[in-house]
Amino acid sequence: MDIDNLQGIIVPLITPVDDETEDIDDERLERITEHVIEGGVKGILAFGSNSEFYMFDDDELIHGLKVIVKQTNKRVPVFFGMGPIRTRKGVRLATRAVAEGADVISILQPMFLKPTEDELFKHYQTIAASVPDTPVFVYYNPGKAGYKMPAEFISKMAHEIPNIVGMKDSSGDMTVLSTIIRLTQDIEFRTFTGKDTLIYLGLCAGSYGSVCSTANALAPLIVSIYDKFQAGDYKGSREAQFKLDPARLVQNEASFPVATKDMANIMGLDMGKPVLPSLPSTGKVYDDIKRELDRLDNN
């Protein structure tokens, strides 16, 4: 299984919808796909958290994936994100996604439940086994799922489930990240940070890149953090990270996940509204996001 191309900045792509029907807007989806590729990202995550995956049924998810795969045309790998609570649903979605051209399957730990480690292991093992020739990533997001997975447990899955070859770590805990990297040094396992403010620090710890929602609107700046680090310009990489941070941190004022579309719309990308019940930011929240984006333009 060749995973050499799984590195760099991966973007959890915005999923634009029609402002009236809320059906996926194919034309806008094609445009944002092209926009991020032109911006230099090294992979696209279809239906990550900021892609609003939880808002769409299975057929909608597969439809959106097909649009992205066609537009991408093998220029960068396409990850397919999911967060099934039921294992059987995960198997069904994973096999459909691979059949439609997904290069990698990314699996968020089940939400609402609090599974035991045995239950979690079986969940990941069963879904991964349904697509044995496809790389599978663990998407670790304790904040959204409501519980933690120990670093040792993630290492166990990496060592014992053949096609689990990487993870997105959205814990924001650098000790957890560095421990996972340390425990998986002996195998081919690719760890990515999932917090846009930790791209530089993750690379210092040995990550292979980062999954960044702000890359929908700010791909060149974010890609420069990775590229400068790889070129040995560590000071320049850190400076680019610090330049990005205020624009990312101000998004915390907005309700999740509307700030990603807010930012894209402020930047003139016309990505429409979030899916109801989420609403676009207004007032001070919107003004603060716009202020930080304006500062980037002026620097």
Describe this structure in words.
This protein is an alpha/beta fold and about 300 residues long. The chain has 12 helices and 8 strands. It has helices at about 25-40, 60-70, 85-100, 115-130, 140-145, 150-160, 175-185, 200-205, 215-230, 235-250, 260-265, 285-299; strands spanning about 10, 45, 80, 105-110, 135-140, 165-170, 190-195, 210.
Write the layout of secondary structure elements.
Layout: E1 8-12, H1 26-38, E2 43-46, H2 58-72, E3 78-82, H3 87-99, E4 104-108, H4 117-129, E5 136-140, H5 142-145, H6 151-160, E6 164-169, H7 174-183, E7 190-193, H8 199-205, E8 209-211, H9 215-230, H10 234-249, H11 258-266, H12 283-298
Parallel strand pairs: 1-2, 1-8, 2-3, 3-4, 4-5, 5-6, 6-7, 7-8
